[in-house]
Amino acid sequence: MLLLLLSSLALQEPPAPPPPQAAPQEALRVYLDCSLCDIDFFRTEITFVNYVRDRHDAQVYLLVTTQGTGAGGTEYTLTFIGQREFEGRSDTLRYDARPDATDDMVRRGLAHAMELGLTRYAAHTAIAEEIDVRRRPPAPGPAGAPPGPPRQGRDPWNYWVFSAGFSGDLNGQLLTKFAQYSGNLSANRITESWKVTLSSNGNWSRNSYQTSDTTQFVGRSHSYHFSGLVVRSLAAHWSAGIQTNVASSTYTNKDLSVAGGPAIEYDVWPYADATRHQLRINYALNTEHDAYSEITLYGKTGETLHDQVLNVALGFKEPFGSVNLSLSGTQYLHDLSKYDIGLSGGVQFRVVKGLSFNASGSYSRIRDQLYLPAAGATPEEILVQLRQLETGYSYFAFFGLSYTFGSIYNNVVNPRFGSSGGNMFCMSF
Length: 429
Description:
mainly beta, Rossmann fold, twelve-stranded antiparallel sheet, 17 strands
């Protein structure tokens, strides 16, 4: 009966016409590579191009990358890379989203920047005469004069940006209960010459497990952390700074840990190109004082340590894919056999047309667990991961392959029976 009813409704009401689309063989073919974009919105708003599923079918490869701004917003870099008959042509546009911008404001700002960049290429297609480019009239200047270049007004906050947040998570059943509360505060001041970041966060949790009528396990944990960083830009490739950290954590057996020291960094590519590629080498020297909650395996209730830290980070995003790799190492200076070295990263690239490969993982060799309590952890603390355990290594790995084939076009947006707004009802046949 339900199928007959649906068929009757379909016959009575013809489907709505699809949104206007440019002719497949005439419009500019575009491949949009933007992991954080509302792709459906751009498909419905920018209709003078054809969107394709694979970059090899595109005449323009549009790569969108992001990085944070000093005010807490986001800078979007749009790189237009010509392919096929547009080989050798490229453009770069930028769009700055304010920290208080809504999702709709951001996607409309991005759409405007995309339209500006794509017009250059669409002007050489068969539908160029159908494209209408208009300029919004600017606000008049004094005495009706046209406005001059934009100027930054007086900033009463002197580039400082503050934020605060609090969250709670409660869930439970008859025999288990869980509660967690978190909070954070931060203050940042970022200019071309200086970068100052101050942040603090705290986390408190309580787990309750009723294992029998008379036995209950209750686990409590907390972690509090403050970090400060001051960086001075020295040149296009160099920067130097000082950093500090103050922390307390039941997981790592530390009532109080205070650490800090100087650091220097070199980027093989200029920092201005960081959204596309970077190879940063950072070296730091730290002095750390730890007060332990319980006596350690080495019979310590507190100690002052000195260590050196080296971090090497490689990242790039190109039309063929992206790579992110990080090598980090920490070594105590009083005993060079006490160290921690780890490699992590991820890759994503297209092997051939339609076939993509992605993988991520990490591996750490751990030889510096000076903070472990001599008493160890109870079986319950091990099961609910309330304590750091003695180990010599840790690892994580993920990989996947995907293959897509069929029509090259990717224009149509059809949200019917979609789940983006939540599952309002379920139907079964």
